[in-house]
Amino acid sequence: xxxxxxxxxxxxxxxxxxxxxxxxxxxxxxxxxxxxxxxxxxxxxxxxxxxxxxxxxxxxxxxxxxxxxxxxxxxxxxxxxxxxxxxxxxxxxxxxxxxxxxxxxxxxxxxxxxxxxxxxxxxxxxxxxxxxxxxxxxxxxxxxxxxxxxxxxxxxxxxxxxxxxxxxxxxxxxxxxxxxxxxxxxxxxxxxxxxxxxxxxxxx
Length: 204
Fold this sequence. Notes:
Layout: H1 11-24, H2 40-45, H3 51-67, H4 71-91, H5 99-115, H6 122-142, H7 150-172, H8 181-203
Helix pairs in contact: 1-7, 3-4, 3-5, 3-7, 3-8, 4-6, 4-7, 5-6, 5-8
């Protein structure tokens, strides 16, 4: 009898992607406006420039997998939609206060929700995810390079977000089996702890 969901066949490749992205990522202070870039590839790479981005987006997938359908689809979609809206706000010059703290806090809070295996109503869960997605999207829009094609760049960071959500969903599918549930919760605790460390770096 298989212990994990069939999608776990993808785990080696996805795990490698996580490791490589984490090795190349830095904390919240790595978000430097005006980074060089011009198109899809640069947009795809951008979310991996911050460990807080990576952790939060993976945590969305983990939490969505814990909550099962329809949350497994709606939470990532809510994140993507509000993230895109946040990027548009930034592109049109609308300010959002506390962006860096919000991004760092997203990893801590979303990781904690996974660690607690929290299952609020779908409306509450999508509101929480959307709230944090606004900060991530605004950061992407603010850091849009002057030389970038906004549509290609935006498509790139949306694709990266989908990939990171997918990683979380695949690993989170282990929660469908009793043996995997504590492992997913442990992963959430690790994400939350890392988010707390990033918050300390933002405020100290």
